[in-house]
Amino acid sequence: MGKDRQITGKVGPGPTHVLQGRRVFLTEHRLRAYPKILIASYLLSAAIIALFLGTDRLPFPRLGTDFVAMYGAGLLAAQGMSAEAYDARILFDAYREVLPSVDYVVGWAYPPVILPLFHALAKLPFALAYTVWMTGTAVFFAITLRPVVRSGAEGWLIAAAPAVVYTVITGQASFLVAGLIVLFIRLLDDKPARAGIALGLVCVKPHLTFLFPILVLASRKWRALVTACVSAGALVAFSILLYGLDPWKIFLSENPGIVSEVVAGGYVNWRLMSSPFTFALSLGAARETAMALQVAFSVLLCGLIVFLLVKGASLRSVATLSMAAAVPATPYNFAYDWVLLVLPLLRLAYEPRVGRLIKTGVILTLYLFPFLMIFVPLGQNLSFGFLFFLPLLGLLTLICWREAVRND
To answer: What is the pTM of this model?
Structure first.
């Protein structure tokens, strides 16, 4: 098959299909070239801005813009002040002591279960700690995706994705979380006990996980549920052993209110978020109304997952839908969380029963939209990323429904 023919490959996590004979715009040759051009444009743009306008005009002041908070939390943990990591002023002083050039405030909202990891990384110089963290999580993510990614072209496409680049810039935990969820989905059907261990470890970012216990319960994968509870419980117990109960008291009692106030008060850019909650807030809705919309949407997603499984859709397809829905299902998500769309978009890309133009349009839109969220000044109070999830969720639901009808 020539370079200008449709590539062949595995239909995401499902069966193998061969699509051939049609000339298409996104050929394998172009899929290899365009991501490299995109990566080169990132680097060239940064170099031009730094050279002619100065480094202070770069969109981001440094690599690891958010990792400074993780590093600062690790420094405080090493000093026996783990609970103080949730105090933004104390945290700011902690990382400013070793990073005096950082003049912005980043909060710490992670649960204490991940604190031992940053406690260990804080023993290293910041640059080395950031490099170890990002390299380790990126390699882990790549390994979990390896059985699904069927060509080097797809690998380059993933590496150049704006959401992936944003994760590298911020130093966030998206690679770790996405890798664990991919591992959970791959193992759930055949090795539920191991899948549950992966799911339990996602408690490092619990707000992205609540759809998956619904999936496990509806599919009656009891061993996965048990091992998820055990692995999450082990992390909780280990954090309590190291730091006591004080960090947990603050995380459970004070932290939710602080996060809600920061988001609802507009102290973070809503354009970086993609939930019904921030969408409604950006349209001027009251906080209570926005949260009611969020709750209704999340409940609808839970019902959809149960309905599709009951009707006979394959567990892996419904799990992939759940992974895509995990981002807008929580009111608090950011552009780096769009890394969770890698597996669902791969699933859609190789679905032969969805029109080529439709799925290409949806994939390209979701692939490129984080770039607009991050770099284009659309206004702080404009949050409509949530709307772009709806076509993807609709198509993945259609795929599941067709499976259910075929299996009926």
So the answer is: 0.90
